[in-house]
Request: fold
Amino acid sequence: MPDLTARVVAVTGAAGRLGRRLTRRLLAQGVTVAAVDRPDPLEALDPLDDDRAYAYPLDATDEDAVSDGFAQIRSAHDRLDALVHTVGTWAGAPLLETAQADFERLLRLNLTSAFLCFREAARQMQKDRASEEGEAPAKCLVGIASGQGADRGASQQYGYSASKAGVVRLVEAAASELQEAGITTCAIAPSTILFDENPDREGVPAERLVALIEHVLSPAGDALNGAVLRAYGSAR
Reply:
């Protein structure tokens, strides 16, 4: 099990089903978690009872809010070691029934939010690197893509497929630029994420996905810079 103690990790979308599980897992490993999400769902997040969990309510599609939020995280904790961006949503419809507003909404929630959070997390991480002495573990940016983004777009999933493909390319582009700054990036592309419902459905169990993210955040994950990890589970 990787040793993540003393690290500060921002989890965006922390009140979502994947974000909640990841937050609990990281707290159990001794990580200080900056839990980022919209104000209303964040208030109901149980793991915030832990004394190493800190709430940062903001809209991840609001440029100014994201900039201010990540600056606050670094100011409060004196460092930021990793970001796991789990913000996103799904919607689908036939091509001729897909409204421009619906398409752009998915781009904004799935891709624009990832771009803004990657950019502002990297900005704060570079400040850390400038103040650190000696060799330090790489910082890490993790994005959640999908099979539709990593391999092939899916029928009637236009906004979702396009936005998740964008997350993959965002991660790849950032990997080549940020490596010299000591920041690695990685995309995790799950198939259907299985939560507590539909145990017989094909996909990847949420807890296994969380364990994979935990590995990416460990020192061993430094070797995965720019990688797209396909986590399809039983959906092959």
Q: What stands out?
A: The first strand starts at residue 8 and ends at 12. Strands lie at 8-12, 32-37, 53-57, 82-85, 139-144, 183-190, 193-194, 204-205, 227-231.
